[in-house]
Amino acid sequence: xxxxxxxxxxxxxxxxxxxxxxxxxxxxxxxxxxxxxxxxxxxxxxxxxxxxxxxxxxxxxxxxxxxxxxxxxxxxxxxxxxxxxxxxxxxxxxxxx
Length: 97
Known about the structure:
Elements: H1 2-35, H2 41-53, H3 66-77, H4 83-96
């Protein structure tokens, strides 16, 4: 039973990933088609080939705000601490920074 559930979970994850990739490609195709309006023949072929082969610009990582930065730093410093000791350390660390 466990094996079947595990396999179903894997298949579901794969189908979601595939659907997402297909949607991205479809969006790219629609965008390139709009931009190719008015082009014909070899000019259109060349444009579409170039447009579809371009990789989308990656979104830069959003800058962490000060609270996120504090939390990340304090988490690194709290490595090895557990339970109440960790809670107390995190509380003091987040107040101090």
